[in-house]
């Protein structure tokens, strides 16, 4: 998760004025020259900081010119107020070759962040405020434009989550391979969160999800069980007996094999979402939001997903975060067409988030599922139903 | 009195716009009128949802039950009222044999259907949907502290109660009765779905086989002990008894309950394996009636009044601890109940015994003078107690019926 703590960075002295024509095109937002009436802001990304020349801008068009002064390529992100949804990004900014991000911004709170090396968590995350102005206070464009913007935003989000998943998985597996089970156990739930936030995307690649995230109960007779839950069982081995037989711990060699397989499959996921033709439609995003809540209802709320580690509520939290990001992306479309549905969904998201927060957080950990009382589980299940029912109408409004 | 035969829910939907359903003279079923076909179970039977009283009380008991008790979520009074309005609107459609909302197949393809569809090709099947309010609803959450009727008591502990917490109480209840089990299920499923975020099921019960007749035209059914049950029940035709014992009259208790009634439910597990090993003579002694015809052991036929003083073989013919004696109005200061229970079988228990029994439902004007004293006598002395165990319990105020355009509960919240 991107830290919300704002860092007081130095004010960058250089500006991008006059260099726009020389800039390479942004991967996401095409632009040719300086946009008339735009607010220009300079961003300097180093190995450890992300210095933005202004922390506020009037609503309307804003141009960020990102300069990389480190020795590896970097990325720049503009995040929504939740610190999760990606409003705009520019990738692959090579040292010495500035790139530009042009976005139309509504008034509100945002975050800026850089990602040197293009992997892992962001650095220099800072608050960024857009104030109300006469120039385009509202997101412009017709529904089609909104849908395209939502899709672009969500693809960025997916890529970002996977880019964090890759190194986090390796760190987790390094501990596991080295026999440092305590560290591996402590990294298990927080690493899986990157995956759980975008699970429907992984599922869309057919064989990937079963290789990465299959539960033992779902393994077909004769198939090899691989992925996160195979390792989960080895880290939280059944106390006495499993299926009447004592649990046989995996050998160092087997650990290495399962680890290599998970790393390879995670890399395949990275390649798939970073393929040049990869894209999503607005209805795929809204269906993703619905699908994530179905995941919660079917697996997490029953304690079936993490039967060895009992970290189901962490998965629940990640599913919920991912669903909210997907929903927020298409929300402007929903507000325009069915405002009361948006109000209902907003309210139910808020109350379920609040309800779940009573049991912990991804950074501090959640109450293990097996320590929840029956009535606590019932109450959470009620909250999931309360959100899922209006959310199930999302796609019909987005495409209708 | 019945709708045109053969009309399915899908067909009715198409006719709805023409005003065929519900309001026509052909549908003017008075719930005090015995259905002409003598059983009330013609597939096309429609009982109107709107009226002075809620349907499902004096309505000729249908063959199947799906009952559910709900806990209300952390919502506002206004949201609770909106739930009751949504429930009433959906109930009016379903009891008329129509699907809810945009139906099961006629809505947008990208949206989940409003109606779940399993009743699409089924007839109205005499569906009634009856709503009730439990004691726990009347607290500060909804500003109803002062509205709780005195008659809506917390039921006392009865000797021998073996209540399971998860099967007791509830803020709201819905009784769905139909002659088709899937139609009754569809009603509870749909109303539960409508309630998501506002109320959720606390416990629910399926019942098959009514154990009471509520009209004279109905044959007295048998419970799982194999005995006729409900011979002396209040019948819809006995309008004076119905008035005196079932409906809350004007000036009685809370004004908003005028025209309403009080529902007591008890899930009664029968230890049928033990019962089945009991000699016929003993079974009849426990009940106080013959197993064949259901005649009181004091003589006569099924509907002969029991003579509790009559002697036979040197003792009273009807045993002092016989069920029929202890539950009879004559032994209870004239207290009567309109019973509307159903047999149930919920699979089996861990010991391989059938988890079977009677889901007892009774309607009355005031539980303090009706169910409670009767049940106290039974709980203390009934010889039948050896073969039964009360595991679930509920009491609910059943408000009067909704007017067309109104909703059930309007007299309380309106």
From TrEMBL, chain A:
GO cellular component terms, semicolon-separated: periplasmic space
Domain EfeO-type cupredoxin-like: 21-119
Signal peptide: 1-35
Keyword Transferase in annotation: no
Keywords assigned: Signal
Stretches assigned to the Imelysin-like domain: 150-394
Keyword set includes Oxidoreductase: no
Pfam families assigned: Cupredoxin_1, Peptidase_M75
Places the protein is found: Periplasm
Sequence similarity: Belongs to the EfeM/EfeO family.
NCBIfam families the record matches: EfeO
Name of this chain's protein: PbrT family lead (Pb2+) uptake porter
Source organism: Lacisediminihabitans profunda
Automatic annotation (TrEMBL), chain B:
Keywords: Heme, Iron, Lyase, Metal-binding, Oxidoreductase, Peroxidase, Signal
Family: Belongs to the DyP-type peroxidase family.
Localization in the cell: Cell envelope
Domain Dyp-type peroxidase N-terminal: 54-208
PROSITE patterns: DYP_PEROXIDASE (PS51404), TAT (PS51318)
Transmembrane segment boundaries: none
Gene Ontology biological-process entries: iron import into cell
EC number of the protein: 1.11.1.-
Function noted in UniProt: Involved in the recovery of exogenous heme iron. Extracts iron from heme while preserving the protoporphyrin ring intact.
Principal subcellular localisation of the protein: other
Pfam families in the record: Dyp_perox_C (PF20628), Dyp_perox_N (PF04261)
Cofactor(s) needed: heme b
Catalytic activity: heme b + 2 H(+) = protoporphyrin IX + Fe(2+)
Record domain Dyp-type peroxidase C-terminal: where: 220-402
InterPro entries: Dimeric_a/b-barrel (IPR011008), Dyp_perox_C (IPR048328), Dyp_perox_N (IPR048327), Dyp_peroxidase (IPR006314), EfeB/EfeN (IPR006313), TAT_signal (IPR006311)
Gene: efeB
GO molecular function, one term: peroxidase activity
Cofactor note (record): Binds 1 heme b (iron(II)-protoporphyrin IX) group non-covalently per subunit.
Cellular component terms per the entry's GO annotation: cell envelope; cytosol
Region Disordered: start-end pairs: 99-119
Protein name listed in UniProt: Deferrochelatase
């Amino acid at each position: 998760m991107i830290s919300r703590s704002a860092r007081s960075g130095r004010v960058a002295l250089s500006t991008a004025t006059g260099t726009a024509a020389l800039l390479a095109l942004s991967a996401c937002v095409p632009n040719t020259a300086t946009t008339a009436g735009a607010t220009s802001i300079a961003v300097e990304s180093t190995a450890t900081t992300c210095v933005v020349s202004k922390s506020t801008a009037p609503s309307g068009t804003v141009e960020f010119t990102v300069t990389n002064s480190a020795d590896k390529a970097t990325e720049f992100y503009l995040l929504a107020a939740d610190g999760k949804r990606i409003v705009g990004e520019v990738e692959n900014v090579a040292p010495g070759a500035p790139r530009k991000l042009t976005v139309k911004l509504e008034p509100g709170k945002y975050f800026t962040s850089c990602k040197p090396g293009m992997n892992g968590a962001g650095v220099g995350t800072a608050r960024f405020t857009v104030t109300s102005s006469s120039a385009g206070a509202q997101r412009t464009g017709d529904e089609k434009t909104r849908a395209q913007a939502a899709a672009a935003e969500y693809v960025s989000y997916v890529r970002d989550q996977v880019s964090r998943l890759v190194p986090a998985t390796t760190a987790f597996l390094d501990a596991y391979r080295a026999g440092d089970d305590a560290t591996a156990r402590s990294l298990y739930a927080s690493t899986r969160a990157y995956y759980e936030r975008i699970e429907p995307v992984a599922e869309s690649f057919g064989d990937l999800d079963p290789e990465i995230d299959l539960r033992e109960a779902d393994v077909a007779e004769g198939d090899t069980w691989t992925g996160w839950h195979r390792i989960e069982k080895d880290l939280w081995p059944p106390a006495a007996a499993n299926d009447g037989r004592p649990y046989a711990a995996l050998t160092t060699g087997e650990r290495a094999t399962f680890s290599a397989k998970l790393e390879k499959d995670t890399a395949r996921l990275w390649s798939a979402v970073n393929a040049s033709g990869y894209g999503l439609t607005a209805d795929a995003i809204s269906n993703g939001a619905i699908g994530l809540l179905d995941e919660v209802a079917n697996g997490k709320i029953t304690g079936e997903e993490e039967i060895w580690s009992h970290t189901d509520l962490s998965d629940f939290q990640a599913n919920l975060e991912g669903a909210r990001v997907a929903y927020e992306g298409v929300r402007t479309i929903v507000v325009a067409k069915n405002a009361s549905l948006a109000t209902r969904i907003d309210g139910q998201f808020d109350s379920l988030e609040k309800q779940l927060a009573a049991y912990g957080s991804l950074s501090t950990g959640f109450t293990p599922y097996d320590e929840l009382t029956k009535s606590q589980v019932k109450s959470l299940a009620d909250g999931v139903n309360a959100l899922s029912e209006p959310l199930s109408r999302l796609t019909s409004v987005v495409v209708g | 009195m019945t709708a045109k035969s053969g009309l399915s829910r899908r067909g009715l939907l198409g006719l709805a716009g023409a005003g065929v359903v519900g309001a026509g003279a052909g549908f003017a079923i008075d719930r005090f009128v015995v259905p002409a076909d003598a059983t009330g179970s013609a597939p096309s039977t429609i009982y109107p949802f709107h009226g002075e009283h809620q349907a499902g009380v004096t309505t000729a008991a249908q063959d199947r039950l799906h009952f559910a008790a709900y806990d209300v979520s952390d919502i506002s009074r206004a949201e609770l009222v909106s739930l009751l309005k949504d429930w009433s609107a959906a109930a009016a459609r379903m009891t008329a044999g129509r699907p809810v909302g945009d139906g099961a197949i006629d809505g947008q393809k990208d949206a989940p259907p409003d109606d779940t569809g399993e009743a699409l090709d089924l007839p109205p099947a005499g569906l009634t949907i009856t709503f009730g309010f439990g004691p726990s609803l009347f607290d500060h959450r909804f500003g109803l502290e002062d509205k709780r009727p005195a008659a809506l008591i917390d039921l006392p502990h009865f000797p021998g109660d073996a209540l399971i917490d998860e099967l007791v109480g509830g803020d709201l209840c819905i009784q769905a009765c139909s002659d088709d089990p899937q139609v009754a299920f569809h009603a509870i499923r749909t109303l539960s779905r409508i309630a998501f975020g506002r109320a959720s099921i606390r416990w629910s019960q399926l019942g098959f086989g009514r154990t009471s007749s509520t009209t004279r035209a109905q044959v007295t059914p048998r419970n799982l002990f194999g005995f006729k049950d409900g011979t002396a029940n209040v019948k819809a035709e006995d309008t004076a008894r119905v008035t005196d014992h079932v409906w809350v009259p004007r000036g009685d208790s809370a004004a908003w309950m005028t025209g309403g009634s009080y529902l007591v439910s008890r899930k009664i597990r029968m230890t049928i394996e033990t019962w089945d090993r009991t000699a016929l003579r003993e079974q009849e002694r426990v009940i106080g009636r013959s197993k064949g015809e259901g005649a009181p052991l004091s003589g006569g036929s099924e509907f002969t009044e029991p003579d509790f003083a009559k002697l036979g073989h040197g003792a009273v013919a009807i045993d002092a601890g016989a069920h029929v004696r202890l539950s009879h109005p004559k032994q209870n200061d004239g207290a009567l109940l309109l019973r509307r229970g159903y047999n149930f079988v919920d699979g089996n228990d861990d010991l391989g015994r059938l988890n079977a029994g009677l889901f007892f439902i009774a309607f009355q004007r005031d539980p303090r003078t009706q169910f409670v004293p009767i049940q106290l006598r039974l709980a203390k002395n009934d010889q039948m107690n050896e073969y039964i165990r009360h595991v679930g319990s509920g009491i609910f105020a059943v408000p009067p019926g909704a007017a067309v355009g109104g909703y059930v509960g309007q007299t309380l919240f309106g």
